[in-house]
Amino acid sequence: MSESPVVERPVMFQAWRDLTFLHWRYPAPAVQALLPAGLTVETHDGDAWVGLIPFVMAGVRAPYVPALPWLSRFPETNVRTYVRGPDGRSGIWFFSLDADRLAPVVVARTTYMLPYHWSRMSVGIDGPVHSYRSHRHADRDQRCDATVEVGQPIDEPAALDLFLTARFRLYSVRRGTLVAADAQHGPWPLRHGTLKSLDQSLVEAAGLPTPVGEPLVHTSAGVLVRVSGWRQVTDGS
Asked: Right CATH number for 12-232 from 2.60.40.10, 3.40.50.720, 3.40.50.11030, 2.40.400.10?
């Protein structure tokens, strides 16, 4: 997979903490049907993959501005897949993002044009057991309740581990134009994980079929991130 870009002029600093990556295989046509023009679903061993990733967003701030304690740390959960743009580069397409703070949700929806939802959320850490709870204010039936036990380190990530996690670009559509932003961060400190329980409807709320079978589980303590601004995507750029 690609290496982390260098973001020399970040518009945002973030830390992604206490993550769980839940991934399911999907038929590529089912995922491709939900993507905007210009993006092609990426596959691994012939299948697309859809991820459900709950975590803690921390240290959120713009350059030269200190992180505000209440606004800069909150739970978040995203539903995503992996794509290739017309520029030939790999990245992430978000079907939805849920966050526990209304102000960041409003800013992200209006300036970044990302499909954020305001949700009541919590993350509980009890030794190796991580518990994530979420339901949307607008519809309590759209939820994600997951409990995961963190396992042993993954010292040498396999090709699929990297396919699902070594992603440094996100795509969006602003005013009808495909755009991309880069996220610079170090390698994920990946661990195995065991799913203890899961009650979720966010994948289906994104328009995807209900996941089949047990998900592949990764966990991570997290990374520090520098996010670039958006730029228009064209062939070869």
From this structure: 2.40.400.10
